[in-house]
TrEMBL record:
<protein>
    <submittedName>
        <fullName>RNA-binding S4 domain-containing protein</fullName>
    </submittedName>
</protein>
<dbReference type="Pfam" id="PF13275">
    <property type="entry name" value="S4_2"/>
</dbReference>
<dbReference type="InterPro" id="IPR036986">
    <property type="entry name" value="S4_RNA-bd_sf"/>
</dbReference>
<keyword id="KW-0694">RNA-binding</keyword>
Amino acid sequence: MSDTAYEEMPIRDQMIRLGQALKLANLAEDGHHAKTLVSEGAVQVNGEAETRRGAQLHPGDVLEVPASGMPPVRIVSA
């Protein structure tokens, strides 16, 4: 493990959409909240702002909403 503490979020499939991942990781309350976070540029994937709610995330990707105060979430295979 590196200096950054990650929460792990296992997924069954090879990928998950960003909006769905935000909800499953409890970084967004619902789909509308996820859409708002993404459209405002508040979401980072692998350290870069992501503005596509349908962006595909794969095992190894790291999802973060810096303003939330919650730790980053690493996508892992279930």
